[in-house]
């Protein structure tokens, strides 16, 4: 964490940064167009903030990042041996990256582009199957190989580098390293441009939208996604499965951005457009690690409904979706969304069951998720002492997620 401890609730973090800035509750509430009573209840934990756009406004008023308020995670517990984030940072910020001209005198071992591509695909598979720690562990070497491939200057090398940096951006966003994620996303798009592969560039743009979503820059995420989609449409045949998947996934990413800025009409239009692409594709697939298809569109309808505040809709329709055709990472994200909706409705038993199911599939993705931590903390505070064995389950889950 940067400043406020990881055990603090969102309300406590808001209070921490408000006091650090020397603002009264009245002043901060006025800055975000809310009442002092509303802010007081938020800081005391008597009321929840369910919308990310409100948190983004508070972050701007407090001059901190969205991640600072949400409490973005770091790798903990069973990941200590695989916590290679410092090594990823070193690889991304290597002095050699500043200038190939200055460092061209230093010999770089030749890298087999086909072998590196296979390793990258394996790392993507690990990520999508819930192996967050394994992905983090292999990224430093993959980034070093990508840098060597860039020095060779072949289109194939640039293309693989784009895939490596896209994976880095996605992984870093997931574990809360949003600044590093943005660097990786920028490198992914730059490498994809050098490869002159339109599919690689459209895929890398997903990394850019992901990084922008992580820091609450929803308008920028929409702009990047729309530009990438328009460019891809003008350069490839949209009926190809790979292109359909990338176009559809860009629409889904933009739908999330629109929902988080509370633009319901745009969200609906983008989801409808993704639905058409999924219908043309005809099945669930994983071209370019998009996991795109009808099921992912259904999952995103639920996810964006949660961002729009339609909690009852998520609680009703979310459990009806069978996410099993999707990679484990997507399945877990869906179960977390359903659990959050249940929690907002104080249906705590259902929320805990959904979280336990997700945790069984991919412990790392659940235990390091800030939204999970906040949800479990809320359930823990509501849990009566008389729950007996059920309370023990809640306490154990809260401890595993570092919520208490």
UniProtKB/TrEMBL annotation:
InterPro entries: Cro/C1-type_HTH, Lambda_DNA-bd_dom_sf, TransReg_Diox_bact_type. The keyword DNA-binding applies. Gene3D superfamilies: lambda repressor-like DNA-binding domains. CDD domains: HTH_XRE. It holds the Pfam family HTH_31. Keywords: DNA-binding. Residues 14-69 form the HTH cro/C1-type domain. The keyword DNA-binding applies. GO terms for cellular component: cytosol. GO terms for molecular function: DNA binding; DNA-binding transcription factor activity. This is Transcriptional regulator, contains XRE-family HTH domain. It comes from Jiangella alkaliphila.
């Amino acid at each position: 964490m940067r400043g406020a401890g990881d055990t603090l609730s969102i309300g406590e973090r808001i209070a921490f940064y408000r006091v650090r800035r020397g603002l009264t509750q009245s002043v901060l509430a006025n800055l975000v167009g809310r009442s002092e009573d509303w802010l007081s209840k938020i800081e005391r934990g008597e009321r929840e903030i369910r919308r990310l756009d409100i948190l983004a406004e508070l972050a701007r008023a407090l001059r901190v990042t969205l991640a600072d308020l949400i409490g973005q995670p770091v790798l903990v517990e069973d990941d200590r041996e695989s916590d290679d984030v410092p090594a990823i940072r070193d690889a991304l910020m290597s002095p050699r990256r500043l200038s190939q001209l200055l460092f061209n005198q230093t010999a770089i071992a030749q890298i087999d582009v086909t072998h590196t591509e296979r390793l990258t695909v394996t790392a993507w598979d690990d990520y999508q199957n819930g192996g967050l720690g394994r992905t983090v562990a292999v990224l430093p070497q993959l980034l070093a190989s990508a840098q060597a491939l860039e020095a060779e200057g072949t289109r194939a090398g640039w293309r693989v580098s784009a895939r490596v940096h896209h994976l880095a951006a996605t992984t870093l966003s997931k574990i809360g390293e949003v600044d590093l994620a943005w660097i990786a996303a920028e490198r992914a798009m730059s490498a994809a441009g050098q490869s002159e592969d339109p599919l690689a560039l459209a895929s890398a743009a997903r990394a850019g939208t992901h990084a922008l979503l992580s820091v609450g820059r929803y308008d920028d995420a929409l702009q990047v996604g729309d530009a990438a989609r328009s460019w891809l449409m003008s350069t490839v045949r949209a009926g190809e499965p790979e292109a359909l998947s990338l176009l559809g996934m860009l629409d889904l990413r933009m739908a999330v951005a629109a929902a988080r800025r509370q633009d319901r009409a745009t969200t609906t239009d983008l989801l409808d457009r993704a639905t058409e692409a999924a219908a043309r594709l005809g099945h669930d697939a994983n071209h370019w690690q998009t996991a795109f298809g009808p099921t992912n569109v259904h999952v995103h309808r639920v996810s964006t409904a949660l961002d729009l505040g339609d909690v009852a809709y998520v609680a009703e329709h979310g459990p009806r979706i069978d996410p099993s055709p999707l990679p484990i990472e997507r399945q877990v994200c869906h179960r977390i969304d359903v659990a959050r909706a249940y929690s907002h409705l104080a249906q705590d038993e259902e929320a805990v069951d959904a979280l336990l199911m997700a945790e069984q599939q991919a412990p790392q993705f659940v235990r390091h998720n800030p939204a999970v931590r906040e949800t479990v903390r809320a359930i823990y505070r509501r849990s009566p002492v008389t729950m007996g064995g059920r309370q023990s389950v809640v306490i154990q889950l809260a401890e595993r997620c570092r919520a208490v």
